[in-house]
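Section: Multi-chain targets

For targets with more than one molecule, the full set of components is provided together so that the structure can be written out for the assembly as a whole rather than chain by chain. Components appear in the order listed by the source. The example entry contains two components.
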Amino acid sequence: MIRLFIHVNVKKGGTYPRICKKYLYWQQLHLHRRREVELGISVTDKATRPPARYNEFDVEVVIQNKPVARDPEGEIIQRNLVNRGGFEDVTSVRSGKYLLFRLKASSPEEARDRVYSLCNTLRIFNPVVHTCSIQAKGCRN
Amino acid sequence: MRISVIQFPGSNCDRDVVHILRGIIGVQTDLVWHGRFRAGDYDAVVLPGGFSYGDALRSGAIAAYSPALEEVARLANNGSPVLGICNGFQILVEAGLLPGALLPNDCLRFVCKWVNLRVETARTPFTSGYEEGEIVHMPVAHHEGRYYAERTMLQRVSKREQVAFRYVDSNGVPSQAANPNGSTLNVAGVCNPKGNGLGLMPHPERASEGILSPNGCSDGLTLLQSMVAHVKETH
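Its structure, encoded as tokens over all components, is:
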């Protein structure tokens, strides 16, 4: 398809820089589409394409075990550090993994949705055993 | 007949498995880099132990996204044996080819010791050389080996006889003291519904030569020999 496109432009007498620029655009699009197939997600879709005007947002992701799955690390922190250190009113400590994503989006909601989609698509958390909470922080710009 | 041992960045038991399959059992075995693995070239595949991608995110989580796992899934769907040992088990679970999940050990330490296992089913290509209920001896060496599955999933797995091995004491009782990592119901290894995919935390390749075992046993060799025998029968 790409070869045909160049051929047509040359016949019409298009200048070399124009052909080159368009060729690069199609090459980029082709690479994006290959990436879509690899990841199983759409990155060239208009709805998910980064908007022309955007800001950077920090999105926090906290992954922890489901309540039914024991969390030995949290239990040890609670029993052997917190309770023993005099904070006996603390009844539960849960440990987890914290990830901070910085990304470009037009709104915090869009940033959050993008990270939510990313976490599900790439299995950032294991749905068999983990819960995942996602929160967009303020704009950085 | 050819068997493949897939090598990921961070695998460290790959050569041990190749040594047993090629050197002790005498079957043609290739050590294949994960990016070059093609299902069509092999009759069985082993995902060895180690620390693929440095255990980043979760053990096996990154390797589960390797294109090799799509090929492994294709091989498993065709009915060919797929064996995951330790980190290989974690990868198969993360890729969704085996049920459940593997969490950090109950004791929060890396556990490295010999354990007793009870063979729960002899109806898989990997356990056909054992007697059902037989107690075998193999070493474990892991930090994230606590098998977890929700109750409904666990019931389904037990009903379909997908639990292949359990941690037991010397009398064959699955006690808490015999459980090295806090696995649910002392599960040490599970297989897929067809039985041709098995994942287990203990290392059969490290229990395949009497000279390397504390009591001179080679119980792990039976598992690998069973797999090879099955491939020869179906080849």
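Chain B has five helices and eleven strands.
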